[in-house]
Amino acid sequence: RGPARMRIAIEGCCHGELDNIYGAIQEIETRTAQKIDLLLICGDFQACRNEEDLNTMACPPKYRHMNTFYKYYSGEKVAPVMTIFIGGNHEACSHLWELPYGGWVAPNIFYLGFAGVVQYGGVRIGGWTGIFDDKDFRKGHFETPPFTESSMRSFYHTREFEFLQLRHLTQPLDIFLTHDWPRNIAFHGNTEQLLSRKAFLRQEIEDQTLGSPPAERLLQQLQPRYWFSAHMHCKFPAVVSHPSGALTRFLALDKCLPRRDFLQVIEVPNTAPMTLTYDAEWLAIVRATAKLRPTVAYVASLPSAPTPLSPAEIDAVRAVLPACIPIDSFVRTAPVFTPGGYPSSRRAGPLANPQTPQLCAMLSIPDPCATAVSAAAVFSEPMARTLPAPTPAPVPAPAAVLAPAPVFTSIPTPTPAPAPAP
After folding, report:
1. What is the CA radius of gyration of the chain?
2. Confidence at residue 244, expressed as pLDDT on a 0 to 100 scale
3. Which string of DSSP letters, residue by residue, matches 159-207?
4. Is it the case that residue 401 has pLDDT exceeding 90?
5. Does residue 399 surpass a pLDDT of 50?
6. I need a surface site. Which of 18, 242, 342, 386 has the fewest CB within 10 A?
7. Sequential DSSP letters for 94-136
């Protein structure tokens, strides 16, 4: 018998359509008589718990719809498959703000944070939330609720700080997720076929401005076996051959709509139980870089290169990690949407999510949300208020606290178009 296999579904832009995405997965399971073990979502997740979250989603008001996430947050429904997601450029900023290092947004649904790495079934999965915008890239994470029209947009712009953190990674990655594409990825697939569907991209492709420059650098350095993206609302496969001889298979997927290519299933070997676990190297990086985390609204000063971690630093973190990421650490921190209720134009204020201070306490690092939560009572903007939170369920204390401080299949391989000379 061959090694055990795990079936992973990857989805492009979610846009809050969880019912339809899970329905499509169940249809695939019925048709193939094979279970999907894991779902990865490449952004625009839209974890709106209520209308006050919805009002912090950066898009024209006519596109703001509650859709179906709130049913999974409230407990009305439970995700039928373990789900891991990153953020895109249309998100419930007030909700994701509570979880800068990631955490459960509902039972069985896990957010990777601004950037993160976890493991599931022995498969190492990393991701980076947001899209690139040069004007905000070197700023700190200064945005806090209540969000303004400007800050709810800058909130989802990728930052140099997470770029620096991700550059610390040295251990192999199986899968990496971004919302926008790495720059120049279009030259590694069938460019003309892409342009036949998205002709308006021609100038950006020719100017080499389509995609994220820092994501391109991460692709070159990390060389994951798979890289999945969304954002452009089309399916586009590519293969990147690295000087090391390694290959990265790239796939962009569409948004969840009928007759669109928004879902792809792959099979990978799994070498561990089907549980979600922390990644020791990543949390050692989080711990080592916490003191560098900028919170200013201007260009922040950061090291130009990562400082390698010692094996002892990683082992020290590994020693305090629980066997899995406890799903019972999920707590509802905001009221649940009530269909048919009185419409609200308010924007959510800062709320404390116990998952963030719990992780920070385990790593002995500052809680980046603590100051805003403590100051919540002084907010007086008419369009914002702090929502009452229910009494949290008990959260298990971490076992210990640190002292301060596969072969993948199923994706088509395109015939790469020649890349232009630099």
Report:
1. 21
2. 97
3. -HHHHHHHHT--S--SEEEESSPBTTGGGGB-HHHHHHH-GGGHHHHHH
4. no
5. no
6. 342
7. HHHHT-TT-EEEETTEEE--SEEEEEETTEEEEEE-SB--HHH
pLDDT of residue 154 exceeding 90, the answer is: yes
Higher pLDDT, 398 or 280: 280
* Both tokens assigned to 267: 């099979």
Output 240-247 pairs: Cβ under 8 A, ≥24 positions apart. 240/185, 240/188
Cα dist. 13→109, 264, 333, 360 in Å? Answer: 16, 12, 25, 30
Query: Which pLDDT score, from 0 to 100, does residue 406 have?
Result: 35
Handedness of CA 357, 101, 111, 316 (dihedral sign): negative
Q: What share of the chain is helix, strand, coil (3-state, %, to 5)?
A: 30, 20, 55
- DSSP per-residue string spanning 291-321: GG----SSBPP--SSPPPPPHHHHHHHHTT-
Mean of all residue pLDDT scores within the chain: 90
Task: Render pLDDT for 281-302 as a digit per residue (tens, 0 to 9).
Answer: 999 999 999 999 999 999 999 9
Is there a contact between 211 and 180 (Cβ–Cβ < 8 Å)? yes
